[in-house]
Automatic annotation (TrEMBL):
InterPro entries attached to this UniProt entry: Chap_CCT_epsi (IPR012718), Chaperone_TCP-1 (IPR017998), Chaperonin_TCP-1_CS (IPR002194), Cpn60/GroEL/TCP-1 (IPR002423), GroEL-like_apical_dom_sf (IPR027409), GROEL-like_equatorial_sf (IPR027413), TCP-1-like_intermed_sf (IPR027410), TCP-1_chaperonin (IPR053374)
Subunit note: Heterooligomeric complex of about 850 to 900 kDa that forms two stacked rings, 12 to 16 nm in diameter.
NCBIfam families associated with the record: chap_CCT_epsi (TIGR02343), thermosome_beta (NF041083)
Gene: CCT5
Upper classification of the organism: Eukaryota, Viridiplantae, Streptophyta, Embryophyta, Tracheophyta
Predominant location: cytoplasm
Single Gene Ontology MF annotation: unfolded protein binding
Annotated localization: Cytoplasm
Function: Molecular chaperone; assists the folding of proteins upon ATP hydrolysis. Known to play a role, in vitro, in the folding of actin and tubulin.
Organism for this UniProt entry: Turnera subulata
Protein name: T-complex protein 1 subunit epsilon
UniProt-listed PANTHER family: CHAPERONIN
Keyword line: ATP-binding, Chaperone, Cytoplasm, Nucleotide-binding
One Pfam family here: Cpn60_TCP1
Gene3D superfamilies found in the cross-reference section: GroEL (3.50.7.10), GroEL-like equatorial domain (1.10.560.10), TCP-1-like chaperonin intermediate domain (3.30.260.10)
Length: 588
């Protein structure tokens, strides 16, 4: 602190802000940043591959997520360190651009940082390392093009697309049903794809989930599924050739904009008011009828009286439909969203071949299926799930019942057991109910995330139908080619290029380690096999199939996904290496 005076002689105090900040410079800054980045990568390393572990994350308000998806793990981790946040961003950008490979990209960046640390210790300047990495990444990306393969697909021949989506799903919790889920994802993407322009608008695919049933019951609906039911139980459950009025205006009398007061002091006045109100409803229903609507889908609710009138006038209705769903319904049925009853015209109505309400088993849950729409290019993947949890839960419930039975038996004795059981019961009950709802919901959420990955993979393949083989084979092949290229560079970059080749080995090593294999031995065996047989498709046999040729195992990944992983990881590591001064507020 220092005391100074302004031009009028008034004193003021200068506080040196820098003194209140902690500062790391030069090598210390780089090392601190590298260790933060590596710490994040270490967390994800064990999740990589088909035998990767899942992570359980609890949010501050108690919500539990179990997932294997790199982007989701990092998103929910709530990291504080700025460099760690960069790694989170890295995974997010991979998710945004490609949709898959979110764990791999962070593991790759972690390995590059580890190698960079060794080079820094040997006295190589960070800029040299960054340049070397850049060169090496270019070599690797070009090499990927060389080993990539193109495959042909068509609307009827989509097996290769399914196989690639299966590779993505094989490392997820839902891998039990990977074949059927992959088929669903591919069919959904093909239904909305514009094959001529090679483009897919994923917004047209709605992923809806409902707790209950089995994962195997997950289905693809060529239309829209809305988690709503008819506003009155006596309305028809099935409407064929529906003409749908899609409304954002409420079924209620208009509200005056200014304040007003109505004195109702006689029965007549009350009845006039009531009649007036009924007249409003009647008019609204009439306007829908005049336009030719046979179903009304409304963004807002309406009271019992309006509901009754709709039933009476034979106009089925659905209320409280969300804005996003309303938009999708409008796109699918080729209708227009109408904000005022006066604007309803026959050509603004949406058209669907079949609208039906479906109920599920013994539960009261009902969903609305809007199918055979005018614009068939909108589909819904409807996920069911939770049997595993139901199974566990029925076990817990049985335990609870048994305990209850014992407690009844001992009611008239002074058994201390009774006290124990009684204190135990509410706990068991709580766990049972909590787990049923959390467990099933978690399963659905994880399935949604996995389906998202599979959809992205199918979309990427339609954009660019080149694939590389997975199981670490592409990385090993790139590593060999980068290593060989290093000798051509006379400068110190050579070391960085070699380090890059070593970092590429981290992916197959992690895959081997996570599958319970000896990482170094497995890697060296596969690498020498690749060189000896000149076969870039040898990878890690994670599932112990008996062959490590990934062509035979049908383990594919998209070329653009793999290239993006390498490029993004290199960019982030370069950015981290270039930071040589970290100024942060010191902690008190
Ligand atoms: P990411 O989030 O990066 O996609 P995953 O946990 O899905 O991470 O793991 C993907 C890695 O697992 C890829 O390198 C892929 O090649 C590999 N992989 C997937 N299935 C198999 C398999 N059956 N055998 C060997 N490797 C596999």
């Amino acid at each position: 602190m220092a005391l100074a005076f302004d031009e009028y002689g008034r004193p003021f105090i200068i506080i040196k802000e820098q003194e209140q900040k902690s500062r790391l410079r030069g090598l210390d800054a780089q090392k601190a940043n590298i260790s933060a980045g590596r710490a994040v990568a270490r967390i994800l390393r064990t999740s990589l591959g088909p035998k990767g572990m899942d992570k359980m994350l609890q949010s501050p308000d108690g919500d539990v997520t179990i997932t294997n998806d790199g982007a989701t793990i990092l998103e929910q981790m709530d990291v504080d360190n700025q460099i760690a946040k960069l790694m989170v961003e890295l995974s997010r950008s991979q998710d945004y651009e490609i949709g898959d490979g979110t764990t791999g990209v962070v593991v790759m960046a972690g390995a590059l940082l580890e190698q960079a640390e060794k080079l820094l210790e040997r006295g190589i300047h960070p800029i040299r390392i960054a340049e070397g990495y850049e060169t090496a990444s270019r070599i690797a990306v070009e090499h990927l093009e060389k080993i990539a393969q193109k495959f042909e697909y068509g609307v009827s021949n989509f097996e290769p697309l399914v196989q690639t989506c299966m590779t993505t799903l094989s490392s997820k919790i839902v891998n039990r049903c990977k074949r059927s889920l992959a088929e669903i994802a591919v069919k959904a993407v093909l239904a909305v794809a514009d094959l001529e322009r090679k483009d897919v608008n994923l917004d047209l695919i709605k992923v809806e989930g409902k707790v209950g049933g089995k994962l195997e019951d997950t289905e693809l609906v060529y239309g829209i599924v809305v988690d709503k039911d008819m506003s009155h139980p006596q309305m028809p459950k099935k409407i064929e050739d529906a003409k749908i009025a899609i409304l954002t205006c409420p079924f209620e009398p208009p509200k005056p904009k200014t304040k007003h007061k109505v004195d109702i002091d006689t029965v007549e006045k009350f009845q006039t008011l009531r009649k007036q109100e009924q007249q409003y409803f009647d008019d609204m229903v009439q306007k829908c009828k005049d336009a030719g609507a046979t179903l009304v889908i409304c963004q807002w609710g309406f009271d019992d009286e309006a509901n009754h009138l709709l039933l009476h006038r034979n106009l089925p209705a659905v209320r409280w439909v969300g804005g996003v769903e309303l938009e999708l319904i409008a796109i699918a049925t080729g209708g227009r969203i109408v904000p005022r009853f006066q604007e309803l015209t026959p050509e603004k109505l949406g058209k669907a071949g079949l609208v039906r309400e479906k109920s599920f088993g013994t539960t009261k849950d009902r969903m609305l299926y809007i199918e055979h729409c005018a614009n068939s290019r909108a589909v819904t993947i409807f996920i069911r799930g939770g049997t595993l949890f139901n199974f566990v839960m029925s076990g817990i419930c049985m335990l609870k019942e048994t305990l209850h039975f014992f407690s009844e038996m001992f009611t008239d004795t002074e058994e201390p057991l009774l006290a124990i059981i009684n204190s135990f019961l509410p706990g068991v009950g709580m766990i049972a109910t909590a787990s049923i709802s959390i467990g099933n919901k978690m399963m659905i959420e994880e399935t949604k995330r996995s389906i998202h990955d599979a959809l992205c993979v199918a979309r990427n393949l339609i954009r660019n139908n080149s694939i590389v083989y997975g199981g670490g084979s592409a990385e090993i092949s790139c590593s060999i080619s980068v290593e060989a290229a290093a000798d051509r560079y006379p400068g110190v970059e050579q070391y960085a290029i070699r380090a890059f080749a070593d970092a590429l080995d981290a992916i197959p090593m992690a895959l081997a380690e996570n599958s319970g294999l000896q990482p170094i031995e497995t890697l060296s065996a596969v690498k020498s096999q690749q060189v000896k047989e000149n076969n870039p498709y040898c990878g890690i046999d994670c599932n112990d199939v008996g062959t490590n040729d990934m062509r035979e195992q049908n383990v594919f990944e998209t070329l653009i996904g793999k290239q993006q992983q390498i490029l993004l990881a290199t960019q982030v590591v370069k950015m981290i290496l270039k930071i040589d001064d970290v100024i942060s507020p010191s902690e008190y």
